[in-house]
Every structure is written in C-alpha cells, then in structure tokens.
Amino acid sequence: MGSASSRPQPTSSLASAPSRASSGFEKASSSSPPPSSATFSLPTGHHAADRLHRISAEAFAGTSSRRGRPLSDVNDSLEKSSGRAYATVDLGAVKAWDADALAKPTSQLAAITLHNGAINTSLRNRSSETSSQHVYSHTLKRQGLPVTNQKSSGRCWLFATTNVVRVEVMEKLNLKDFELSQSYLSFWDKLEKSNTFLENSIELADVPLDDRVFGFLKTAPTNDGGQWDMVCNLIEKYGLVPKSVFPESYNSSNSNKVNWIVTLKLREYALELRELKKATMSSLSRAGGLTKEQMQACTVKALRMRKDVQMQEVYRIMAISLGVPPMPNDEFTFDYYDADGKFKSLKTTPVKFAEEQTGSFTTQGACSLVNDPRRAFNKLISIDRLQNVWGGRPVLYVNTSTTQMKDSVVASIKAGLPVFFGCDVGQFSETASGIMDTDLFGYELAYGIKLGLTKAERIELGESSMTHAMVITGVHLDDKGKPVRYRVENSWGADGVGKDGYMCMTDAWFDEFVYQVVIRKEHMPSHLWSIFQKGIDEDTDVLPPYDPMGSLASSMAIESARGAESEDEGEETPEDEYEIDAILSHDSGRFKKDEVAYLVSWKGYGPEHNSWVREEDAENAKDMLSDYWKNAPKLKTMTKSVGGSRAAKGGKAASRTSNASRKERSSSQTLSQSRRSSVRATSTSMDTVLQQASRRERTALKAMHKRPGFDSFEPTEDEEDNDVLSEAQLKRLDPEEANRQRRRMDAKRYHRLGDWEQVVKQIETVEKDENGKLLVFCVFENGSRVIYEASVVHYRCPQKLLNFYESRLRFNPKAADAAAAAAAAAAASASEGKTKAAPDGSEEQSATLQDDARGSEETQGDAAKDTAMEEGADAGDTNSDEDFDAGDTNTNEDLEAQVQHDEPTAEES
C-alpha cells in the first residue's frame, strides 16, 4: 500500500451507471478491416445506414446486458451518431461536437464555473458534507493517541498495524497516549526486502531482464509499501519497540532518497549475480565431474556468498541513513508515566515486548478478507513473489463479499477492536473535510456524462486498486442496524485532515473502494477462517506479482494524499511549502524598526530549522498568533497597533507561501513535504543589517567588512536569492572571485538555517561599531567569514558565542581573596565603630584598582576615537583598515582585562 496519489476519478453513480455507448461500437468496428479511404459516410435514413445501426446495437447489446447496462442507452448513443465512421479526428465532426458541447444550460453554467477554480472544489456536493457527520453510534472505548503522521513516506501499512496494536499496549500498561516505533519495523522491512530481491535475482538469473515478472520486481525492490502478512512476518522475527526507543528520523519520514540509493545498488547487485552465475557455471562445466544438480548447488552457494557482501553494504547504507535499531533480543529500558501520572520502568527485548505487552493481539489470530469481484468468492487468493521475509508467510487473502466484510467490521467494533483496512483513498475523498463518499463530487451533472465502470472493471483496467491502509475505529448504525458511515483513523497527522486526523467513510464508498479488512477469527464466519487455515493448495488463485491486488505492497509512489489532492485541484504547490508548528518567541526591530518578528518552529522539522519570520508573513497563522499573544509578554518598544487587534483575529493556522519565499528555505536543504503553510523563512543576515542601518552606521559596517579575510557582501533591494550564480557563470570568473562568490552563496544558505552550532567553525572576535552595537566575526566550516549582529548569533549559535567568551576569561584568585578579606575587615571595623586598614592583600587590591583606572582611561580614549570615526563617516569618509583597527573598542586583550577588572574593590564591598 504505497501510493495515495489520486487519478482521474469516477463519478458518484458507479456500479449502476450505464456505460459509454460508443465503447461497444468502437470495439465492434475495430474488429473489421477499415475501408480504403480514411472516412466514409452513409446518408441518414439510408437502408445501409439503418442496417449498420441495427447490427451495431445488437452486437453491443450482448456485451452491455452482460454488464447490466440498459439497451436503451445504447440506442440513444447510436441515434446521436452522424452516420460516419472514421479512424482519424474529422474536422467536420469536431464542428458538430463543438455545437453540442455547450448546448445545454447546465453545460454552459459548468463552463462558466469550472474554469475559474479547482474542479473538485467547485463540484463538491453540499448534501454529502451535511450527511457525513463525525458522529457515530459505536466507537472504541480507548482511542489511540496521538494521531500519527507518516509524512513523506509510503509506510501506511506499518502505521495502520501499529495503530491497531498500540490500543492493546495502552490497555495493558495503562497509558494515556502511546506510539510504537514505525521506523523500527521499516528498517528491518527494507533489509528483508533487499535480501528477498537478491534471492529472486538468483532464482531468475537466467530470464531476460525485460521479463515481465523480473521487470516488475526490479522496478521498486525496496519501496515503502507492504501488506498485513508482511508486517506479521516482521513482528514475529523482530518484535516491537516503543517509539521512544527508536524514534523517527528525517530519512525515515522522507524515505525517497534512502529508497533510491538502496534500489540503485540492488539493481547493480542483480547484474553482478547474473554475471557471477554465468562465470561459475562455465568454470564448473569445464572442470567436469559434477552433475547438473551439483553444479547448480555450488553456483547458488557462490552467489549467496557474494550476496552476503552485498547485504553488508545495504545494511551500512541504512544504518548511516536511518540509525542503528535495537537487535530483536537486545534488552532495552522503557521509562514512562502511566495514565495516573506514576513513573514506571520496563526492561525487556523487542521480541518479548511483542509477546508480553500487546494484550490479546497475535499475528496468528487474524486474516485478510478481500473483495475482488473478478474472482469467485469463498476462495483463497495469493500473490506470487509478494513477500518481504524470504521463506516467511506468504500474502494470503480470503475472497468474499463486501456485505460479509462489513458484518465482520461491525462485530469487531462492537467488541472494542480496531480494524486494519486497505482502500483506494484517492477516489471521491477530500482530505480537509475528511469525507470519503461516492456522492461527494457532481461530475455526472456538470459534464452530462455517465461513468459506469464496475468495481471489477476498474481493477482490471488499472483505474482502481489498493493504495492506502488505515484503521476503522467506529461505525454509525441506523435504526435497522445497518452501517451508514465509519470512523477512520488516518496517518497523515491531525492538522488539516478531517476532524483532528480522523476521516468519515460512507457505506457506499466502502462498497466501491474498500478492498481489504483484517478480521480476527472470532468475528468472521468459520468457513472463511477454515479457507485461510488450509493454506495454499490447488484451489488457490495465485496471482502474478503485478496484479492490482498486490498494489498495496508493491506501489512505487510515495503516499501523500494531500499532495495528490493539491495536484488534482490544480494548486501549484507540491514540494517547497512549510507549515508553522509553533510560535516560540518574538522580537522588535529584527527586520525593520518597530516591526515584530516571530521565531517559529516548522511542522515535521527539528529545532535546527527554527527561523525568524516577519509579522506579515505569519499573519495567516491567526489562531496561533492569537493564542501566543494571550500569554506572551509584549515588547516595550511595540506600538499599540502591534498586538492590539491581534488577539481578536482568528482563522486557520496554515497559509501558503510564494514561490520565491519557498525558495529561501529550500536553498539550504531540500525539504519535500506537501501542503505546508505560507511563511517566508527569512533570517537576519548582514545584508539585512546593512539595509536597515543609517548612512553613518552603513559606512562603519562596510569598513568592518573590509577587515582582511572577511568577505564583503553588498546588500540587495530584495531578500530573495536572485543573485545565485550557476557553475557555468562561476567558471567565467577568475578563480579568486569565483571562490568568493561560492562562499557568498554558501553564507546565504547558512542564513536560512535555524541552528548554526554545526556550521560555524569558530568565532574569531567580537567588536563594537560606532554606536556600541556588538558585531560577531564568524568563520564557517566551508571557509566563509562573515560579520553578524550579536543578536543574530545569540539565537543561531549561542554555545559558540559562550565558548568564545569562556576561552578569554582570566581569573585573579588573589584579588578575589583580598576583596573578601577587605569586606570582612570593613564589617569588623563598622561593628567596632573604628576604621581599620586593609589586610596584607591590599597591594594586590590596589593594583587591581589601578588597572580599573587605566582601563577607564583607555575606554575614554577609545570613545574619542569613535567620535572621530563618526565625524569622518558623516563627511562621507570611508575608514581604512588601519583606521578601523585603531578605532576598535573591544579587542581580545581588552575583553580579558575587563573581565579581570570586574572584581569588586574593597571600597565597593
């Protein structure tokens, strides 16, 4: 179940809708050889034309009746024909089509409406919205919390399974909320899939590379998709761990690159194994003395020895990208608070955790009921070579009706058990409202058409298949006990998905687009369980690996229904949008005077990506702003308008960003997650400092930029990366300038990062400008040397700044002792009403006071130099390096001296 991407969607009238009459006619005419000319015409009313209509109608009637479609629709379609049959698009016919296209008032209204916006949005059925309420007569007593988020990965089947199992764990351990580690199972799944692909490559080493089966297997050998039986294999072999033991990483949530590099190597390994087999068989054949079976056994052993080396490389790639998970039998400690707030600690292994902490759940106690109307019911279905663990249990389905599936689902919900199910989520569903209903969109009325493919035909033609796995956690029954709608727990996060991450599926949608439910044996008919228990035999329908019923496990595409929905609705958004997760702090004057900026965290990204945004760019996150200002202290420098009306504003917390602002964040790192909010992730850079500075400040700052070894980056009018140079442009520059430009562009990328602790190599010095502002000279890991205001460095790399100051601290313990002794003496003197001399350490204390006086004189001298520098700046004079160094206020030595001089004197004590 790997892809939730949408496709051209059928209409609301599905199984009962009549088919396109022309399809049968085209099939009949295509079976006869075409005439010599491209087209031929028969006059209306001619006996030959009438006979052709009658023959065509009779021919199609047989096909139509078998598919349950009325003959009247066929005759109506043929009556509309112009009487011409042609192989090419005839311009004369196009004119007739054009006259008919907007003939009806409904077509004219649809044309006026649909070209202005997204089709799905325009055709949303209001009655479907009002009837699909998130209210249910039966729900689970204990709900799984929090709502999970698979992000940009196709691991829905792992999330659905762990969401089912975690309810049992929460009951067993008395937990308020809990998640099992999906990335733990995903790690071992990819490793097992890699091994299975290489074993298949050994078995199929003699078939052509374009063989349909091997061609399908090599398409996506280690994709994210999977099936119920496959996750059971993983749990039985590797067990389960809490999410805190092996949490998500960036690459587990954004698996595209890991999948790509592993797939690349696996394809390379497959060719190696093929070549090795040929060479080994050839050598053994020349040596002689072995039977064919012995030669084959020796060859397989040699190939598996080579495979072991290959698998070692695969493991290395995954361990580096995803982290090293616990071994199945290694002990770990799970510390937690239970629902009563009591601390608990559990020491166990992954295998024991799966066996002992999952309540009544067992991998052997349930099976998949599927509805494949192409095949006979009450039969076992299996998919050839569809597995992750080589030699593990195969994927098995028991084929039955949707009525039986729904009865079993209702029985499970009433028993307090969530139900894993597989469906085609992209059909007639809407993420934001969470509605899954065949009547949701009015395509038929708007276009004046009937889309009448049956469920079996949609499967056979590739129009529909299992694309996503979710969990049913509730059902609403009518007065007669029949299901009306189902509560669906998704794994796309809580924000922007239905009601707090839960969707509403109608009973009609279940009939058409649900293909699989996993039911425990006690809640299904005994004869269906017996079919499953019997296993694969001569009566089993074994389907090829490329059959649509295996699509849940073999899909290549990454699941992102939000991205699919956006694409379907015509939005230009797919990759570089970001959604604010929380507002952490605020500041005034960071970008402009009296303008408020917000420090925000981004949904799906760690604290290293936190960044400052303008108030106007966060304005659409109104709910968050309102909540923030209810609790946050207001800045003293704020005007009344700032935050005055803000608390009263409300609305949706997600907004969309312009392409240019999205480019700012994507320049530092490729971040691909769909449907993110519109905030410009702009950071305060030296360019911004120069833009906001006065003429006098700008002159001083530019002089500082001329400091040897530090690049001078001129400010630009806009803050976008419009001045990014391509490699071809860089090659046309002289080497020194090209290297400077590379460092400049790298530094701009650093501006977009939230945390600089890992990219700043060192802080060279800290100096003051003429207005007393602290400026920090940063040296980055790539060699870039840039100056920033201290306020920027405080947020970006506070530890580096602290290290700089601590490395320059010079303590004088004798002076400190003298100060303490002087304080004691002064206290004693005061109590006796007498004045006593300072103790023996007074000479050192006196020296310290002299140093203070000397430091004060130096400071006054520096201030005079600063004044001269300022006057020169007013005259338009640009300071030279020597002038600037002479006017430097805080050298390293000065800082050391000031730290020493901060000790209290005896008189101060």
From TrEMBL:
<dbReference type="GO" id="GO:0004197">
    <property type="term" value="F:cysteine-type endopeptidase activity"/>
</dbReference>
<feature type="domain" description="Chromo">
    <location>
        <begin position="578"/>
        <end position="640"/>
    </location>
</feature>
<dbReference type="InterPro" id="IPR008251">
    <property type="entry name" value="Chromo_shadow_dom"/>
</dbReference>
<feature type="compositionally biased region" description="Acidic residues">
    <location>
        <begin position="869"/>
        <end position="896"/>
    </location>
</feature>
<feature type="compositionally biased region" description="Low complexity">
    <location>
        <begin position="12"/>
        <end position="31"/>
    </location>
</feature>
<feature type="compositionally biased region" description="Basic and acidic residues">
    <location>
        <begin position="729"/>
        <end position="740"/>
    </location>
</feature>
<protein>
    <recommendedName>
        <fullName>Cysteine proteinase 1, mitochondrial</fullName>
        <ecNumber>3.4.22.40</ecNumber>
    </recommendedName>
</protein>
<feature type="compositionally biased region" description="Basic and acidic residues">
    <location>
        <begin position="851"/>
        <end position="868"/>
    </location>
</feature>
<feature type="region of interest" description="Disordered">
    <location>
        <begin position="59"/>
        <end position="79"/>
    </location>
</feature>
<dbReference type="GO" id="GO:0009636">
    <property type="term" value="P:response to toxic substance"/>
</dbReference>
<dbReference type="InterPro" id="IPR025660">
    <property type="entry name" value="Pept_his_AS"/>
</dbReference>
<dbReference type="InterPro" id="IPR004134">
    <property type="entry name" value="Peptidase_C1B"/>
</dbReference>
<feature type="region of interest" description="Disordered">
    <location>
        <begin position="1"/>
        <end position="46"/>
    </location>
</feature>
<dbReference type="Pfam" id="PF03051">
    <property type="entry name" value="Peptidase_C1_2"/>
</dbReference>
<dbReference type="GO" id="GO:0006508">
    <property type="term" value="P:proteolysis"/>
</dbReference>
<feature type="compositionally biased region" description="Polar residues">
    <location>
        <begin position="1"/>
        <end position="11"/>
    </location>
</feature>
<feature type="region of interest" description="Disordered">
    <location>
        <begin position="832"/>
        <end position="909"/>
    </location>
</feature>
<comment type="subunit">
    <text>Homohexamer. Binds to nucleic acids. Binds single-stranded DNA and RNA with higher affinity than double-stranded DNA.</text>
</comment>
<keyword id="KW-0788">Thiol protease</keyword>
<dbReference type="Pfam" id="PF01393">
    <property type="entry name" value="Chromo_shadow"/>
</dbReference>
<feature type="compositionally biased region" description="Basic and acidic residues">
    <location>
        <begin position="899"/>
        <end position="909"/>
    </location>
</feature>
<feature type="compositionally biased region" description="Low complexity">
    <location>
        <begin position="667"/>
        <end position="685"/>
    </location>
</feature>
<dbReference type="InterPro" id="IPR023780">
    <property type="entry name" value="Chromo_domain"/>
</dbReference>
<dbReference type="InterPro" id="IPR038765">
    <property type="entry name" value="Papain-like_cys_pep_sf"/>
</dbReference>
<dbReference type="Pfam" id="PF00385">
    <property type="entry name" value="Chromo"/>
</dbReference>
<dbReference type="GO" id="GO:0006338">
    <property type="term" value="P:chromatin remodeling"/>
</dbReference>
<feature type="compositionally biased region" description="Low complexity">
    <location>
        <begin position="643"/>
        <end position="656"/>
    </location>
</feature>
<dbReference type="GO" id="GO:0043418">
    <property type="term" value="P:homocysteine catabolic process"/>
</dbReference>
<comment type="function">
    <text>The normal physiological role of the enzyme is unknown, but it is not essential for the viability of yeast cells. Has aminopeptidase activity, shortening substrate peptides sequentially by 1 amino acid. Has bleomycin hydrolase activity, which can protect the cell from the toxic effects of bleomycin. Has homocysteine-thiolactonase activity, protecting the cell against homocysteine toxicity. Acts as a repressor in the GAL4 regulatory system, but this does not require either the peptidase or nucleic acid-binding activities.</text>
</comment>
<keyword id="KW-0378">Hydrolase</keyword>
<dbReference type="InterPro" id="IPR000953">
    <property type="entry name" value="Chromo/chromo_shadow_dom"/>
</dbReference>
<dbReference type="InterPro" id="IPR000169">
    <property type="entry name" value="Pept_cys_AS"/>
</dbReference>
<dbReference type="GO" id="GO:0005737">
    <property type="term" value="C:cytoplasm"/>
</dbReference>
<dbReference type="GO" id="GO:0005634">
    <property type="term" value="C:nucleus"/>
</dbReference>
<feature type="compositionally biased region" description="Acidic residues">
    <location>
        <begin position="714"/>
        <end position="724"/>
    </location>
</feature>
<dbReference type="InterPro" id="IPR016197">
    <property type="entry name" value="Chromo-like_dom_sf"/>
</dbReference>
<keyword id="KW-0645">Protease</keyword>
<feature type="region of interest" description="Disordered">
    <location>
        <begin position="639"/>
        <end position="745"/>
    </location>
</feature>
<dbReference type="GO" id="GO:0070005">
    <property type="term" value="F:cysteine-type aminopeptidase activity"/>
</dbReference>
<keyword id="KW-0539">Nucleus</keyword>
